[in-house]
Amino acid sequence: MPASSASFWLASTEVSSFDKLTTDLTVDVAVVGGGITGISLAYLLAKEGKQVALLDAGRLLNGTTGNTTAKITAQHDLIYDELIHHIGEEKARLYYEANDEAIAFIRNTVLENKISCDFAEENAYIYTTAEANIAMIDKEWKAYEKLGIPGLRADRIPLPVDAKASIVMPNQARFHPLAYLKHLIKHFINNGGQIFEETTAMSINPGSPLTTVVTRDGTQVKCRDVVSCSHFPFYDVSGFYFARLYAERAYVLGVKLNGDYPGGMYLSADSPPRSIRSVSFNGEDLLLVGGERHKTGQGICTMKHYERLETFVRDTFGSCEIPYRWSAQDLTTLDKVPYIGHVVKNEPHAYIATGYRKWGMTSSTAAALLLKDMILGIDNRYEDLYTPSRFYADPSLKTFLVENADVAKHLINGKLEWVTREPEDVRPDEGAVVRVNGKRAGAYREADGTLYVVDTTCTHMGCEVQWNAGERTWDCPCHGSRFSFSGEVIEGPAKKSLKQIEY
Q1: DSSP letter at 19?
Q2: Quick check: 2 pLDDT over 50?
Q3: I need a surface site. Which of 131, 241, 275, 459 has the fewest CB within 10 A?
Q4: Within 13 Å of residue 499, how many CA atoms lie on the same side as its CB?
Q5: What is the pLDDT of residues 377-429, one digit of tens each?
Q6: Taking all residues of the chain, what is their mean pLDDT, rounded to a whole number?
Q7: How far is the CA of 451 from the CAs of 176, 268, 444, in angstroms?
Q8: Please, which pLDDT band fits residue 16 given cuts at 50, 70 and 90?
Q9: How many Å apart are CA 194 and CA 26, to the nearest integer?
Q10: Strands (DSSP E) along 355-395, which ranges?
């Protein structure tokens, strides 16, 4: 079974490759990160006549965007009652409206340009199968009514589950994200945009009138404005985003059902949550079933999460085939509202967009629309809602203390862990924490016997990484950095690879 959704989406979408940046460049705007935020923003700015360079550390569309389930919805779990209590009714309404406008933008872009991306409108449901959770559904429904969000409070849902209560948000959507983004890329290039892959932005040197983006290979991009749209901000300066974001992983199965699917997109309010929706893929209908989220680098063996999802699928829908599986990583802010805007107040030409939780399709589009206005000097009513400099004591202070206490715990536990296995004990296609010369290390042996041994100390802030058997990676339990089995960086905030140890 493929373990990457990039292979899932890319299997039916030919995406061009682009050269690495090898010479210095001067443009109006440098956009770092080739996901939906970066591509959408680059597309919008190029339409406005701006000279834009889009830089991606890897290959375009192979990262977080390639690992999405591609739900286009403003129904972001049970969020609106929580937002009313934490940031107020006005901002909660703005949050809905920003995401609703993002849906409208995607819908209009698809229809006006006749993009073939399997766009389909669906009703979105949040439901519970537990009597104890009915009160949460009722509170969320009251929040819908208070904010004027269109919807319906119901009991049953079309799925074969014993739902006790549900909320329906109509006229949401789903699509093939990479087919949609391929169209934006084409128009971006036609409007003079430039794309550079395998180009890792490492730092920014603020200046006047131009700022300089420095890449890992030493090439430079001079620009008036720079935007960090990478999954984790590549430019933190004094924003301390590593302490204001926490990383979670979730798991998805691509399922071939033997029976019919009733339609709709579903998310359970129970624990563990379950996400269900259909997708058209290579001419056949599949079901995407997700859930099992947990903090990166923490919890049980990752393969167990796939096994639990498979049990849920078979118990709910009967016999089926499961040809695809993958996992995704998402970042959450202290108050669950994304950080979109100036990296810090005193750098007016450096911007950031991150912290979308599980809702990247609408949040990233809302981010692109907001950042486009900010760069062009156009007032936008969502700027205060998303500003990264905000801080609400409730819930931000509590979340900050809890998350950073968790970091401290794992930092200490990793240093105190007693390891007894040796590298020679590691079997083919197995990874494990081992002991080398009296020190903690990590070993992975390929099927052909090739052994890789790395220093397990995360290069970000020194926590000890853990083995992820499901994805064959080394994951940091403190701030969510991830490394390949041979030590290369897959996810930030770490920028340097794990040190390889000769053995």
Answers
A1: P
A2: no
A3: 131
A4: 11
A5: 999 999 999 999 998 766 766 665 666 566 556 656 666 577 778 989 999 99
A6: 89
A7: 38, 42, 6
A8: confident
A9: 11
A10: none
Give the 3-state secondary structure of 332-346: EECCCCCEEEECCCC
Tens of pLDDT, residue by residue over 456-479, are 999 998 999 999 988 899 999 888
Tell how strand 120-128 and strand 52-55 pair up.
unpaired
Q: Please list, in sequence order, all residues whose beta carbon lies within 8 angstroms of the beta carbon of residue 327, skipping any fewer than 6 positions away.
A: 3, 67, 249, 250, 251, 252, 302, 305, 470, 471
Cα dihedral 465, 466, 471, 472 in deg (nearest 10): 90
Whole-angstrom CA distances from 177 to 39, 116, 225, 256, 318 are 12, 11, 27, 20, 29
**Sequence letter at residue 151:** G
Question: Using an 8 Å Cβ cutoff, are 179 and 211 in contact?
Answer: no
Q: Give the amino acid at 16.
A: S
- Secondary structure of residue 353 in the 3-state scheme: strand
8 A C-beta contact, residue 28 and residue 52: yes
**Structural domains in the chain, sorted by start:** 417-491 (2.102.10.10)
